[in-house]
Amino acid sequence: MEQDGCLSQELITQTSQLGDGTMQLNPDGEQCTSLTKIESSLCYLLTIRVIRARNIHQADVLSQTDCYVSLWLPTASTVKFQTKAIKNCKDPVWNETFYFRIQSRVKNVLELALYDKDIVTQDDHLFTVYFDIAKLSLGEEVFMHFKCDSQRQEELEVGFALDNISGPPETIITNGVLVSRKICCLEVQVVEKKKKEKKSLSKKEFFFKVQGSYEGTQDITLGSDLVFSSSSPAKFHYARYKQPTLDVMLPGKKRPPSLCSPNMELHSIPSGEKMVLAEDKGFGLYVKAEDCPDYLDVRLGFDLCMQEQDFLRKRQNYVAPALKKVLQLEHDLLDHETPVVAIMTTGGGMRSLTALYGSLQGLRKLNVLDCATYLTGLSGTTWTMSNLYRDADWSQKDLDKQISEARKHMTKCKINSLSLEYLKYYKKQLCQRKREGRKTSFIDLWGLVLESLLHDGKDNHRLSDQQRAVDCGQNPLPIYTAVNVKNNYSTLDFKEWVEFTPYEVGLQKYGVFVRAEDFGSEFFMGRLMKKVPESRICFLEGMWSSLFSLNVLYIWNLSHSSEDFWHRWTRDQIDNIEEEPLLPLKLHELQTRLFTPAGPLSSALRSVLTDRLCIAQEHNFLKGFQIHNDYLENTHFRRWKDTVLDTFPNQLTQSDEFLSLVDTGFFINTSIMPLLKPERKVDVILHLNYSAGSQIQALDQTCKYCSEQGILFPRVDLSEEDRKKLKECYLFDGGETPGAPVLLFFPLINDTFQKYKAPGQKRSESEMEDGKVDLYGCCSPYSTYSIQYTEKAYDRLVQLAEYNILNNKDLILQALRTAVARKRQLKK
């Protein structure tokens, strides 16, 4: 085992495989990649003395408050501590001291909650103070007065001291946003001692608990008819420096709620040594702790993974010749002259599935499909994409076969999907997922229904299987999108972009990714704990298009275009508060804030407004990570920092058991965000819009979002006349925003197609009927919720989408020429 601060060979190997650059040793002794560091970092001793409170308002009708303070510092301990309760006193004095071992590189935010103790009902939560430990200076003692209510002159007085602590520094791995800390594996073994006489022995049950560990609680049962028996060890993985304890309940004692002695503080166990925890005439209890290797099974970093970088090099061999041919260039394009072109789609149910086939067929006929490096989708377009990428060479062929196959399923009778035979199949598949350790929901059932609607029988295709379709760079790289949400928050208040490629799944905001085949498995502190079989892609399709995840606020937003009216009911009441003394300002510290709980009526209304009918939940691969002390200064995090909880690190995604994933359309109906990642260097975006209703709304929302986030995006300047009657294509070259991609916007409209069956070919009188495609009328067959088309309706939509691409060849070529010229100019 390596000592703290030393780089293990396994970590070098693992990181090079995952693609974050070459490991090197910094002058200050830190080992790092381009963005991920392995470093030795000191721990400090934090002393907190809860002194007193003043002028606490009366929470009960008939008596003064019975105050106590709860202390919660999840980065240092898994246990919530609390003072004693002082009865019937508005000016309680506690003078109780608590100690925490904190990691200096972690954002440690202490939550001091004041409660009124009640015997009959649940304790009343009066308020919580959030205090950033980064405000404290090493070696100094301060006494803070938190002004909780200026009118009532309520305040809480607490003393703090921060000191060095004995012992070696801790080895951490960090990308500047997340921190993975040192973890240990504890083995607990029970050995039953040999008896003098053989006799039937009753079963003995031992219960063990390490709060905050990956395993939580485990049982060991010794057999009934053995003279001597030794159990298999119970294992616990835990953060070494988070003050963990092993709690044990011996045979004959009652089962938890609270486990019984003996117990042991685990940081006191020497690494690698077997120790006796308890022993009597009948059994011996032994423990052994080992440090886990310093490598991760997730990729921490903001760059592209090695596989995607390799794909880009190979895709260049297709893109450069295709651009030369399309633009009729005399000379081959050099690497630095070749723009990155992306095809971006929006959702829209079966309408978007069908129209995307037509758009791609049009791009292929123009030879532009070979010019594209990326293809992104959400909702219905992910169904088309996952169908296409079953064929390893789909973009190199005519798409007639795929279009014909899709027509067969789009026009077939769907009632069979609800037959008894299929219902039995659905139940069997859901039970299997549950046995694998997944949390199933109606979204999984929806995925199975989609499978029956779009395929013949069971489809064993998986996301990682699509690597075959990109391993030589022969097709654009597919990127599927979703958003991670939180219970009790609207999508406008909390959402985090999640991207899926055949190589990996990740959240760019945190710079954390897992292999596609490991998505859904259980992780702890970046280590793979339990491998779960990779989901079949139908379950991902159900999640990417989870139209059942709507809530009341989303419906309100659709009709009123704003949730502002409801924010007073659905947002936490958080206020910045004064404190004395004023501590020296530090760059990365958080403001001290006060949380006041909502009343019963507000809480009930918030629940009604924000609860979602159903949601897809997958094991959270960020579980156990902690937030870096300087995370708000990280440029990558700041780019995607857009939620109300971003300055509340204890409540961010790393603290959740599951990711809660929904259709991206519940925020903005766009899959563009992965393309705006600077590391992908996208130069041209073909925005294929298949939204219902307003064709410009999603683009306007994207522009607004990018402006607020400081993300480079071209200005969309449409006249009122254009907004009332859209054209088939618009070019926004981004000239006024240096560094922004060129944007080609294709709304799904029926304009010149009504009179032309192909560019330049007018329809005859007998063919005019074929040009009548009612896309959005009240009698339109293309409703987002329609799951069956007639053959005529299907064919007309495919033809319309193809025509709109072919009829705007000149604008597409203009966009590509602009991008090539800019690449050449940039090099000069």
Number of helical regions: 16
Radius of gyration: 30 Å
Based on the coordinates given, report the CATH architecture of the largest domain. 3-Layer(aba) Sandwich
Q: How does the overall form come out from the CA principal axes?
A: globular
Count structural domains.
Answer: 3
Poorly predicted ranges = 1-34, 224-230, 256-260
How far apart, in Å, are the first and last alpha carbons?
52 Å
The major sheet is characterized as: 12 strands, mixed
What number is the mean pLDDT? Answer: 88
Account of the 3D structure:
The chain is an alpha+beta fold. The chain folds into 3 domains: 43-168 and 572-597, C2 domain (Immunoglobulin-like, Sandwich), CATH 2.60.40; 183-291, Immunoglobulin-like (Sandwich), CATH 2.60.40.150; 306-550 and 612-827, Cytosolic phospholipase A2 catalytic domain (3-Layer(aba) Sandwich), CATH 3.40.1090. It is 23% helix and 26% strand. Strands 23, 24, 25, 26, 27, 28, 29, 35, 37, 38, 39 and 40 form a 12-stranded mixed beta sheet that branches. A hairpin with a 3-residue loop joins strand 27 and strand 28. Helix 3 packs across helix 15 (791-806) and helix 7 (442-454) packs across helix 8. The radius of gyration is 30 Å and the shape is globular.
